[in-house]
Specification:
single chain, about 260 residues, 8-stranded antiparallel beta barrel, 2 helices
């Protein structure tokens, strides 16, 4: 009788004890999705891309013809746009702060070397059939910008804007009625930039980005000089630049460092 009673009670005891034992076992906790990556911290990295510029240059024809023939020799106004294009490569450093809880604000400094360059020919009517080769080249781009973005865990959509600088060179060269000439103008031009992009953190410390930036530098008078003939003059240049670039960043901050 006792054995029969134990045989019936044992399965019941195991059944009742099961939930209690399971309750005492440690449960596996999942990291909340929104907490997997935190954008607060600083970063440094590099970028590579391409750009093209609009350089409306006014008036290279007058620069050449008035230098040889005297002021007022050239009637009308001529404007040319060589349309420089090329690669950009450089680096960036910045800091971000994530708040509220999915917004990100930050500041970044960036600098790029550039191969954007192109030339075009323009006719010199007074030296018919002479022409001048007009070349525009951007050697360097730099910016300091603020950015604001919205994060979806490890992906960040952002916009940026701030101050910018470009280092440019302009050349007007050729031969006028048999006499060679070569004008050169160098300048560092300041303006503003605005753009945006998307950045993806693929580990706790590394991220990649793709970004578009527009640079506006307005118009300025550029001093030109021809050392061979001891000529001095100027042209007016209106400039803007567009750049698309991919970046790689290493993050230092709230993700374990």
């Amino acid at each position: 009788m006792r054995r029969l009673l134990l045989a019936h009670l044992t399965p019941l005891a195991v059944t009742l004890a099961g939930p209690a034992v399971a309750a005492d076992m440690p449960r596996k906790t999942e990291t909340p999705f929104a907490a997997r990556f935190n954008w607060t911290g600083c970063y440094l990295g590099g970028h590579l891309g391409g750009g093209f510029a609009r350089n409306a240059i006014t008036d290279p024809v007058q620069l050449v013809q008035d230098s040889f023939g005297g002021a007022g020799s050239t009637p009308g106004v001529t404007s040319v746009n060589p349309g420089p294009a090329g690669a950009v490569i450089g680096g960036q450093i910045g800091c971000d702060y994530q708040f509220a809880p999915s917004w990100v604000a930050g500041i970044e400094g960036a600098a790029s070397g550039s191969t954007m360059e192109r030339s075009t020919n323009v006719a010199l009517p007074l030296g018919n059939p002479d022409t001048a080769l007009v070349r525009a080249k951007t050697d360097f781009l730099a910016s300091v910008t603020a950015r604001i973005g919205y994060t979806f865990d490890d992906a960040l959509l952002y916009a940026r804007g701030g101050a910018a600088m470009a280092s440019d060179r302009y050349d007007v060269s050729g031969s006028f009625v048999g006499t060679p000439f070569g004008f050169t103008g160098l300048e560092n031009r300041f303006g503003w930039t605005a753009g945006g992009g998307v950045e993806w953190a693929f580990t706790q410390h590394w991220s990649v980005s793709i970004e578009y930036d527009y640079y506006k530098f307005g118009h300025r008078t550029v001093a030109m000089s021809d050392a061979t003939n001891a000529f001095l003059g100027s042209v007016d240049v209106r400039q803007n630049i567009q750049v698309v670039k991919a970046g790689l960043n290493f993050h230092i901050g709230a993700n374990g460092w």
